[in-house]
Amino acid sequence: MNPSESVTNMPLNEHQTATTQNIGTSVQSPDRSTIKLDYQPAPLPLVTEAAIIPTPAAETQAGEPQATDTHAWLSYFQQCSRLLIATIAPKSMTLQYANAYFRRLLGLPAAGAAGELEHILQQLMGVADNGAIQRLYRRHLLYRVLQQFYQIDLQSYRLLDEPVMIALQSPLHSEPRYIEFWLRSEQLQLTRLDVQLDEPAALKLKQMTLPQMEAALADPMQVERLEQQLELQHYQPEGCLLLEGLDVTEREIIRRITQLLVDHDSILRTHKFRELNQQMRSLFRTQNTLLLSIETDQIRLFMGSLSDEAHPTLYPLEALQESHFMHALRSNQVSVVADLAQDPRTDGGRQLVKMGVRSLLLIPLLALNGGLGDRTEAVDASSSDSLQAAPPVLKPPGAVGVVALLSDQPYTFDALDCRHAEQLILAFTQALTTAQRQLVQQRLITNIHPSVEWRFLQEAERRSMGLPPEPIAFLNVYPLYGISDIRGSSHERNLAIQADLLEQFHLALAVVDSACNATTTALGEQLRLDLLEHIRQLQEGITVDAEVSRLRYLREHLEIYFDYFAQCGEAAIAAINTYRNACANAHECIYQARARYDAMVHNINTLLRETWERWQETMQRITPHYCDIEATDGIDHMIYAGASIDPKFGSFQLRSLRYEQLRAVCACARTAFQLLEKHSTHMQITHLVLVQDATIDIFHDETTERMFDVRGSRDTRYEIVKKRIDKAIDDKTNTRITQPGMLTLVFCTEQEWTEYQQYFRYLMREGWIDDQIERGTVQPLQGVTGLKYARARILPEGRDATNQASGNYSSTT
To answer: I need a surface site. Which of 46, 65, 71, 239 has the fewest CB within 10 A?
Structure first.
């Protein structure tokens, strides 16, 4: 091939374009973009293309079999080598020669001009990979400049020994191919056009010793600076460059899969599993990936797909005992099921066949010290006897799971696929083990408060390692309990029930009246009288069971006759339709008044909870603590704080938390004031805080729905007080100790009151509460005596206590 046939200029020819663009600062490649240069200590003589690629006339002489053999071997090498080989003119950067594999992979014609290298690569590679090739060229030129003009011959310049990895979209393949490229520049000679030029002077290389130069050039930052300072337009290159490449697609995909697997993110997460499935499809030419995760006595199956969601399915372990999957685990060998349709084995196998799966590649994952078996076997329909002879063991010791590659064609997988699969076993085993551990942690720590999550994670880690469970307990914690209760909510709901039932019974009476007016019957008259009696009773009031019993009466003694009533004329039909339309909801009854009540309570609870959670952010900054909130008719909160939860916990944190709790409850009261002003309701909200200066021990009982229970009779007493204190009565006045719009504090000892008396004074100073404090004794509760209380009116926002400035207050008993 004549080099002049394909010599054209291109942007990579920096001798012409370096004045307008700095290729050394182009976009960075995501892969490692370094270079390999094979060189000899002594410079080689400059050769021409004819010397590199001899013609038949130059290679052979008549009567010389040796020359003919040499030409034959060169021709065979050119046509059949799996290496990518090309020579490049350094000035024009055009291909002077490319072997057959290079041409096929890049889609070049089999003979004739090869064309512009940059134009070809731009079509087949991304911008980042093109930048890597450009930096490869610049780095070699830098080395030749240092060698020729500065006599710096660094034998340990190892940055030239590493290939550059690029992703090439070859017309021969549907998926990108990963190619490692080397560049050899021994035949390159440079002529300096500007003899005064001295680019490396800024680094003072001439003043350095050889070891210092080697150290300087071993610094990637300094090498990059030198490459950027290199002005290629000042040099005239001559000779040629040798470009060598190697297709390492399978190796690179295996590396990328391994990188995905060793990442901390669980492979069972949807996005991770989808990305992993895509890489596996490319490596093994499959349609899908199936992952079996063995968890105690069940198997969780994940089917990969290109959709947004992975769909796990649970199977009992026994259901797969005779399957190909369990056989692969027992043999601890990568196995190939050549044609699943010939031997599906189990219901699961038959289901896969129905889905179009014909062949499987099975990768067993076992957490054992032993490695793979001595061989990799292929399993087909004739291997049923070996599977039937499997020992009756549910699962092999250390079994973690199985990775299955699915193909819609029989006989898809071969021995090379098995070798690739073997390289992934350790990474898959570790990844699935980590994912299973995270699942255990997730189940154990679902809805766990962040302050105590660390202990649950610690226990989940122990259990994932097969260790016996240990109790999760926090000792010597201080309890802080409070409640904002909706007073009158039961009465309001009874009124709502009464209104709905009366309306429904009146509609029922209209149905019977319409039917009786059309056709008089004795039973109809008695039914009408029954309805009138029910209405009279409902008007007087409702009982506890009225909501259920009255509706049951209508269903069993009225609605069953609607088909008959519909035959009694148009008026009866209209009354029935009115009744049915009024009950056409999820409750299947009239639910209007109760719906308004439910919305009101929900609105109160939501606003109270939002207010409390805003204050929780400040309280958590004081000291991390456990806080549980329950919302029914109002909200109540339970706080546990102590050194077993926060090692930095001390007396200042305790007192700060107690004072902040009181402020948060007052803030909830102000939220309630604003809400009740906007709605017409008889409901009021009371607020109570229970004080206990003694610590308690709490533990997590996995057999109950509660997050924490208390230990011992001393701690149980506190729980009893919590459940009964909101209904407590004053010992003298026989009135409830909690009153609407007031903050009530319940305590046991004078020492506790002394501490909280100070907090009350602070609340007055800040304008949270009035300066009048009422005190009294709590009427004995069942099993609990000696409790006292103090209460003060909570001030709406913007109103201050009378003696706020001085901090004075009065107390009444």
So the answer is: 65
